[in-house]
Amino acid sequence: MKYFTFRNCLALLTLAVGLVNASCNSVITLREQRVSTKIQIDSTIADDPAYVRLYAPYKDRLEAEMNRVVGRTNVALTKPANAPETLLGNFFADALLAEGRKLYPDAAFSFGTKGGLRIELQPGDITVGHLFELMPFENELVILELRGKSISELAQFIASTGGQPVAGMRMRIADSGATDILIGNTPLDTARTYTLVTYDYLANGGDNSRGLNDPVNRINLGKKVRDALIDYVSRLAQEGKHINPKLDGRIIQAR
Predict the structure, then answer these.
(1) Choice between 37 and 139, residue whose per-residue pLDDT is larger
(2) Which end of the chain has fewer CB atoms surrounding its CB within 10 Å, N or C?
(3) Boundaries of each 5'-Nucleotidase C-terminal domain copy (predicted)?
């Protein structure tokens, strides 16, 4: 922005945009016209060697960590859309419950959603990068103490959506409703309080989940779900075990 002061009684300033009459001691402001240029960002742009040298060490370290093998799966971890129970969902819920119990031993069951699991895993090595792709969000583990009535509402949500990942819980789906609900090996008692492992996104109402909005108590465990998955797979590998979930009937669709 440029400023010009004219001390003449009258001045006639001719600009590209027209004629401006200026009085004594007036200040005229000239505004620069800015021209924008669209630049296409694609593979035709040559790398800048200076920037490449700057980020290359960090890129190499990141790739090395993402390619680090933490375990192995014997089976394809898939999540067919129309299946009430899936191998990927069972693996995920089992990991949530196992890692949640390390921080809160009284946890009874776990719950997640199929929509939050972003990729399927093929048989073979599992890398850190695979688990980042599976759970790319910054979600953290949460403990919810829930009344039996709330768990019944959660079970109805699971049934109405055709089944979701759970561990420590069993149920049947009949006419889009939940029946024969077990926590552990015991029928659900609506007068009792149970402890659930899930993550903050769902606890805050994400994925339109129901039954989690009125807990007796909530404890944020301060651990990323992704880190819990990495720890779970790594621990099994250290014990000489591979990921090998089964379809065990924890959610059954009545015919």
Answers:
(1) 139
(2) C
(3) 69-209
